């Protein structure tokens, strides 16, 4: 994390999942400003519910915009989990 302008860079790589029994998220954060203001790209292997929210299999792009900049205050696990609708400080892109 730094203040270097990296708008002319690209990310290239590959991921591989070698299990069919564990379907946790995997992904990365970019555009990081502070613990509650950032973008997140993630991928979920299988659809799964959690406390009234749903994580549907596939890729998503989200932006988190918390008011205080303190992720422990602004964000909840529910906001990180949901990937189909806007939820709290998370907007689904």
TrEMBL record:
Molecular functions per Gene Ontology: calcium ion binding
GO CC annotations, alphabetized: extracellular region
GO biological process, one term: cell adhesion
Xref: Pfam families: TSP_C
PROSITE patterns (UniProt xref): TSP_CTER
Domain TSP C-terminal: 1-93
Stated name of the protein: Thrombospondin C-terminal region
Organism placement in taxonomy: Bacteria, Pseudomonadati, Pseudomonadota, Betaproteobacteria, Nitrosomonadales
């Amino acid at each position: 994390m730094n203040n270097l302008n990296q708008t002319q860079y690209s990310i290239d790589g590959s991921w591989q999942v070698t299990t069919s029994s564990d379907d946790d998220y995997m992904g990365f954060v970019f555009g990081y400003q502070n613990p509650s203001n950032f973008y997140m790209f993630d991928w979920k292997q299988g659809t799964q519910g959690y406390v009234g929210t749903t994580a549907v299999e596939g890729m998503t792009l989200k932006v988190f915009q918390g008011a205080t900049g303190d992720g422990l205050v602004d964000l909840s696990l529910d906001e990180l989990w949901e990937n189909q609708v806007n939820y709290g400080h998370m907007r689904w892109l």
